[in-house]
Amino acid sequence: MRDILETLDRWCATGTRFAVASVIGTWSSSPKQQGAAMAVSEGGEVVGSVSGGCVEAAVYELARQALETGETFTEAFGVTDDDAFAVGLTCGGALEIFVRPVAEGQFAQWSALAAAVREGRAATTATVLSGASAGACLLVRDDAKVTGSLGERDLDAQALARMRPLSPSGPHGLTATAVLDNEVTRESLPDGTSLLLESFTEPPRLLIFGAIDYAGALAHLGTFLGYRVTVCDARPVFATPARFPDAHEVVVDWPHRWLGGARVDERTVICVLTHDPKFDIPLLEVALRTDAGYVGAMGSRRTHEDRLRRLREAGVDEMALARLRSPIGLDLGGRTPEETAVSIAAEVIALREGGTGRSLTETLTPIHPLRVSASLNAYQRLRAARQRPGDSARDREEIRSANP
Q1: Distance of CA 53 to the CA centre of its chain
Q2: Residues 216 and 244: beta-carbon distance below 8 Å
Q3: Which of 236, 264, 269, 332 has the smallest number of Cβ neighbours within 10 A?
Q4: Full strand arrangement of the beta sheet holding 324-325
Q5: Per mean pLDDT, which of 33-37, 54-58, 150-154 is the most reliable?
Q6: Rounded distance, CA 22 to CA 48, Å?
Q7: pTM greater than 0.85
Q8: Per-domain residue ranges for the chain?
Q9: For 126-148, how does the pLDDT look when each residue is reduced to its tens digit (9 = 90+)?
């Protein structure tokens, strides 16, 4: 969802109606996680994705239908369908999609959500999934500012009591949720109202120490991946915003001193690229005592061995040293700053998601992580209770043509 909010904000500003299709349930090897979203404007413009291309044409038609009728839809697609191959979901999984039309009355909530994410604030939305109020939306930010309503004061109060940040910890202490996506859960209120809660946490941080060309490439890639990027170096001639235009902030300070006062959590990535002992050792002493999910340091294997010796002499214990990823990155064989940045980012992702870092042709594990968010029985009940565009032979042929 995060990746489409700026476009949705632009549509709201121009008074353009749109429909949003969100992944609210997955089963087995689904191509997208919960929270992934695609939007269709009243003019036919499309932004985002719910399946990596598999069922986009069918979801597009549902979105167009939602815009025409003003109704919401909850639909399922998966390999148990007779026409699964017609819509293109051949990966072996299943998706549950919620489609909601957005008109002028809800523009304020969507613009407020876009602004919160843009400012790096945490926010949670509650959307009614079914019934007369289906599609009604309520937003609360981390500063307690509330926008929108579910239609009734009591309903709003019950929803607000359940709207909390959602941040399950993944392997190795890093959040096992793609940083570009929002986290999704469902809640049922006492009166039977079913809510979709979407939590947008503040972005994770990438802290890069050493104002060198490798830092510039890593800052660019880190921003692309959704991190809030800081570049820090004690040398003011090198640590300038002009040299690092992709960084959110550039700090001139001794790295260990600045890091000692910085906010670090389990989603934080720390990359030490200085490979200079007078910077590295005091910095890594501080870094390895934080809760950072990833601490990596650049340098040769000889530099690494010398670094370990110095850290031991400084009193860093073996358990802390075991957290250090050095030499930094995966063995991709690259040499350029850009290739090195890809290597570092690949190691961060593999550690966060529990990946092996090996070629997929050499592994037998599912390509898409197995994250069950809806049981197969629930999926089958949902599918049996609904029919979607594509059940007729003509519609199947149209969808097949749109998904070669």
Answers
A1: 18
A2: yes
A3: 236
A4: 249-252, 228-233, 205-209, 269-272, 294-297, 324-325
A5: 150-154
A6: 10
A7: no
A8: 1-15+109-202, 18-102+374-404, 205-353
A9: 999 988 889 999 999 888 889 99
